[in-house]
Every structure is written in structure tokens, then in C-alpha cells.
């Protein structure tokens, strides 16, 4: 009798152990429904893109790729450019946002400026652009055999006319800067006459198809250095900015002029190390001769701080 009880007890214990193991294994095998839910969650994590700014037209660098939106993020189009390409060069930005001025986004054009090829003096400068809100894309080569870019800017004034400004080959406070023009909406590019200035460029741009400006001096400038063209870059000349004695060595870095009524206006800031009024005040100057000469008008707008 004792033997029978022992056998029954052993069988019950073995059965209990087997049942426990089976239950544990079954509970760790996800069902088809669980797999579907998990996959859906992971998919949402990949696809839930957020615009970099609260504007109708914007972009995102999430998931290590560049996507653009024309409706505040309701739908997206992928840009066929490797993310790392967008940050190559001497200046790399923070890689959380695109380098300022290295791209152009409007209702009619999306364009991104970057380099291809081995790092050194043999890189291609390329523009990838779309004129149909990202449905189709084209590439155009701006120039070949370029050194690492430092400054870069792309802009379009209309459907046809646009420009690219790049600098590279920096040695201490010297570098070469180059301006390229397109008259066919980015399909082809032609370099303008070189300004001949070897100071570091701080800004540049065209205000119409013939009138453009280049501003130089980023390392401790002592006076604004602004050059202009009235013939789409065939020739460049230095502008005269009459800085009152009170503001000399204070307002030292010229920004790009803007049209204001029947004249041009320009703001001249204090550079990176200005301390007049906390370094936040700019000088406003006016030109009545399309940018050749500039006269002081007043202390202008405060520098925006984030």
C-alpha cells in the first residue's frame, strides 16, 4: 500500500513539473496577434516623423534619412541623399539640423547642396533638387575637383535664376570662395568671375538677377568688407560703408542688403565678439546707388537670440 501511494505521488509530482514547464514555454511564445501588434508598434516608431519646424514646408532627419513635407508632416517624401553627405566638409554643423543656407525649400523648389567623393581636393559639389514637391528628383554638378567646403549657400530668386556660394581650402584666415549661377532652374551651373578676395567669407547673395553682394571677415574683423556686382558676377568691386567714428570697430560685419522702398538697406553687426550694448545691436545703413556706397542711418534691429 505504501508503495502504491509513493508511485501515485511521484506521478503527480512529475505531472505537475511537466505542466509548469509547458505553461512557462507557452506564455513566452508570442501569438500571431501579439506579433502583429508588436510589428505595428515598431512600424509606428519608424514612420512617426516630426517636422524640424512648425512651418507648412519643412524637413526631418529622423531615422538617419532626409524627408521633406509640404503639409506640416501629414505626408512625407524621402530625399535620395545619404544623410552624412549633407554634413561633409570643414564645417559639419550639429547634424541635428541641416547646415543653415545649405538647402532651399519653397512651394516650387526643394534643393540640397552637398559634396560627393573622397575627402580632399577632388570632391564634386552637387545639388539634388525637385520641382514637384519631392515626387521626382534630379542631380546637377555645380563643380568638380573642389576642396572641403566650409561656407555653403544655395538660393533661388525665381523658377530659373539661382546661385550657389561655396568656400574651401582654408589656411588660417585665408580661403578661396566661388560663386555659381544657374539660369535654367538648377539644371546647369556656371562660375562667375572670382572676386579675388581671400578673406573668410561670412555671407553672400543676390537681390536680383544682376545685383549681388559678398561679405568677408569672420575672424576678429575691424571694419565691414563688402563687395558688389551689377552684372551677375562678371566684375566685383568693394563697396564703401561710411561707419561713423563712434561706431568704428563696433559695427564690423556686413550682412546681405535688402530692398527697402526705392533704396537698399543693410545691417552691419558686431561680429562674434562684439560687446556694445551686449553685442545685440546692429547698425543700419542706406544706399541710394544700388550698393556702391552706404551711409549710416541709425542703430538698427537687435540680434535675435534663441
Give an overview of the whole structure:
The protein is 14% helix and 37% strand. It has 306 residues and is mainly beta. It has a domain at 221-306. A hairpin with a 5-residue loop joins strand 20 and strand 21 (293-302). The chain is globular. Residues 1-9, 20-31 and 33-45 have low confidence and may be disordered.
Q: What is the N-to-C succession of helices and strands?
A: HHEEEEEEEEEEEEEEEEEEEEE
Low-confidence stretches: 1-9, 20-31, 33-45
Mean pLDDT: 87
Number of helices: 2
The whole-angstrom Rg is 30 Å
Q: Number of DSSP strands?
A: 21
Query: Globular, elongated, flat, extended or rod-shaped: what is the shape?
Result: globular
What proportion of the residues form beta strands (DSSP E)?
35-45%
> What structural class do the secondary elements suggest?
mainly beta
**Helicity, in percent?**
10-25%
> How many strands, what sense, and barrel or not for the largest sheet?
6 strands, mixed
Our measurement of the CA-to-CA distance between the termini, rounded to an integer number of angstroms, reads 88 Å
Amino acid at each position: 500500500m505504501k508503495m502504491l501511494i509513493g508511485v501515485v505521488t511521484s506521478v503527480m509530482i512529475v505531472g505537475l513539473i511537466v505542466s509548469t514547464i509547458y505553461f512557462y514555454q507557452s506564455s513566452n511564445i508570442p501569438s500571431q496577434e501579439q506579433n502583429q501588434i508588436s510589428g505595428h508598434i515598431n512600424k509606428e516608431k519608424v514612420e512617426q516623423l516630426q517636422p524640424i519646424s512648425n512651418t507648412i514646408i519643412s524637413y526631418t532627419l529622423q531615422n538617419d534619412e532626409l524627408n521633406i513635407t509640404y503639409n506640416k508632416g501629414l505626408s512625407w517624401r524621402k530625399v535620395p541623399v545619404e544623410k552624412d553627405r549633407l554634413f561633409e566638409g570643414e564645417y559639419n554643423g550639429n547634424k541635428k539640423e541641416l547646415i543653415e543656407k545649405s538647402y532651399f525649400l519653397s512651394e516650387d523648389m526643394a534643393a540640397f547642396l552637398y559634396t560627393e567623393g573622397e575627402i580632399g581636393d577632388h570632391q564634386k559639389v552637387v545639388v539634388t533638387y525637385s520641382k514637384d514637391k519631392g515626387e521626382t528628383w534630379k542631380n546637377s554638378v555645380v563643380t568638380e575637383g573642389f576642396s572641403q567646403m566650409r561656407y555653403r549657400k544655395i538660393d533661388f530668386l525665381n523658377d530659373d535664376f539661382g546661385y550657389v556660394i561655396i568656400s574651401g581650402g582654408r589656411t588660417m584666415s585665408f580661403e578661396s570662395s566661388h560663386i555659381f549661377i544657374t539660369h535654367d532652374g538648377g539644371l546647369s551651373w556656371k562660375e562667375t568671375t572670382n572676386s579675388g578676395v581671400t578673406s573668410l567669407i561670412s555671407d553672400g547673395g543676390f537681390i536680383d538677377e544682376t545685383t549681388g553682394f559678398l561679405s568677408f571677415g569672420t575672424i576678429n574683423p575691424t571694419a565691414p568688407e563688402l563687395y558688389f556686382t551689377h552684372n551677375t558676377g562678371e566684375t566685383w568691386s568693394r563697396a564703401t560703408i561710411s561707419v561713423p567714428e563712434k561706431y568704428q570697430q563696433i559695427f564690423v560685419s556686413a550682412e546681405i542688403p535688402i530692398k527697402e522702398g526705392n533704396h537698399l538697406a543693410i545691417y552691419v553687426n558686431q561680429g562674434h565678439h562684439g560687446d556694445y550694448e551686449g553685442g545685440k545691436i546692429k547698425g543700419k545703413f542706406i544706399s541710394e546707388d544700388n550698393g556702391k556706397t552706404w551711409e549710416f542711418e541709425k542703430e538698427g534691429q537687435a540680434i535675435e537670440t534663441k
